[in-house]
Structures are given as C-alpha cells and as structure tokens.
Amino acid sequence: MSDSTKPDTEVADYLARYGNVGFEDFRRMAADDKLSAWEKIGFPDSYRKGLEQDIFLDIARKLPALDGQQQIIIDIGAGCSDLPRKLIDRSIAHRHRLILVDSAEMLGLLPDGTGVEKVAARFPDCPTLIASLQGRVNAVLVYSVFQYVFAEGNTWAFLDACLSMLAPGGSILIGDIPNISRRKRFFASETGIAHHKQFTGRDESPTVSFNRLEPAHIDDAVIMGLIMRCRNAGFDAWVVPQDASLPMANRREDILITRP
Ligand SMILES: C[S@@+](CC[C@H](N)C(=O)[O-])C[C@H]1O[C@@H](n2cnc3c(N)ncnc32)[C@H](O)[C@@H]1O
C-alpha cells in the first residue's frame, strides 16, 4: 500500500502505538519495514508529506552557515526522511563537513556522500565526538528532537554539549519544539476553537486544562529556562516562530542560539 492510500484508522492505530516514544523506540521503528520513512520518525505521513521543502527553507533561513562553503554542520537526531536528505545534498554541493548523529538503524537508511559522517549515538553519549568539536561547529541542527531529550531527562547535559561545540559566529537551531503552553493558548483562543471544529467536523470546543502538572511536556517555563541558560553562558538566544506555511506553526516554535 502506498503512503497516500493508508486509511485513517491505520494512522490512528499507529499513533496509539507510537504516541509516546524515545530513542530506543525510534531505533526499533527505523528497523520496521512496515513503516514509511515518516512513520519511522514518529509522524503520520500527512504531517510531513510534501512539506519538507518548506521546512528545509525555514531551517536554512535560520542557519546561515548552510549557505556558506566548507562549514562544519552537525544534525543531531537526523531521522531518515527527505529532510536530512536535503541537508546532505546541500552539504555536498557546498563542500561542508556534515556530521549526522542518530541510531545506527536510522542512519543506515540515509545515503552516504563526500564529507558526510555518520555517528551512531544517543547524543550527548558520544564524548569523543563532542571533545573533537569543541568551539568548531558552524551550525547545529536539532529538529523535532528536543521533546524526546526532555522526556528522557537529559535536557541540560544535551544543551551544554551543543553549546560547547559552537564556533564563534555559529548558530544552533533547536527547532519544532511542541510547547504545551502555546498549544493551550491556541486551543483556548477563538481561532483555535474554530480550527478544532473544522478539523474534527464536530461543533465541539477542544478541552483545555490549565494549572496542572504536564509530565514530560515542554512548557513556557522550560523554553524560558533554556533561553536563560544559553544567555548566562555567553550566547545570544531567542524564541522564534516557524514560517506560517509549516504544518504545526500554530503550536510549535523554535529556539535560535548564536555565539557572538
Ligand atoms: C521526530 S524524529 C526527527 C527527525 C529529523 N530531525 C526530522 O525532523 O525529520 C526524532 C529523531 O531523533 C532521534 N533522537 C532522539 N533522541 C536522540 C538523541 N538523544 N540523540 C540522537 N538522536 C536522537 C530519533 O532516533 C529520531 O530519529
């Protein structure tokens, strides 16, 4: 069955199965031949199909080193869809050194190329790589990955290791962060309620609960804490929106960090 003809029930089953995943689950999903490339990275096909060019353009606007020549780029949690393939093509064309970090199973699904290195590891459990890149990396990409790092409890070690690798003038994009506070603001708004009704086809408002614990979810406090940690370590850091054309731009956001 092709990706586009999978019935909705199959997507629903898949989400029920893979809604709450971590690094080891992704490793198993990468090896599961029944899943599409997008399902292997935890998305129903409809969330990414036909949209990865726009996502790549949004990323490239935020990481100017991708446009340069012979830069050092690292993609942490590269996955196996068209997005890392676009980064590989760009890196070969611009003679970058591109380091892809993910499980061996995930990286095995990506093509090789001149200047492309694959490091099979759960970042930051790769001290030799991190030590070899101290202060040398021009662009770090962490796209749709940080929520899993946060849920697995490795937030600060992960962030500090990313910061330590950044060269002067370099940038880190921690992108596509699902911020549950932002999601609640959206679904409590008139626009969000109308969006929910249109999406479900029912005349019902979404249920939004404030003032309660949200285990394993990133909220405004986490986002602001990340920004403060970077700034206190001597980096500039901002919360930036995604381009409005992106599939989850109304409830996800990016953190952009630069080393002065
Ligand atoms: C949702 S996918 C995103 C893939 C890709 N960045 C994209 O946006 O298309 C998350 C990926 O991050 C990887 N991952 C999760 N935690 C990681 C970690 N600590 N170090 C390296 N990779 C990680 C998973 O194996 C998976 O491939």
From TrEMBL:
Coiled coil region boundaries: none
Its domain of life reads Bacteria
Q: What class of enzyme is it?
A: transferase
GO BP annotations listed: methylation
Signal peptide location? none
EC number(s) on file? 2.1.-.-
Q: Which UniProt keywords apply?
A: Methyltransferase, Transferase
What InterPro entries does UniProt report for this protein, alphabetically?
Answer: SAM-dependent_MTases_sf
Q: Which residues cross the membrane?
A: none
Query: What is an example of a GO molecular function annotated in this UniProt entry?
Result: methyltransferase activity
Name the UniProt record assigns to this protein: Class I SAM-dependent methyltransferase
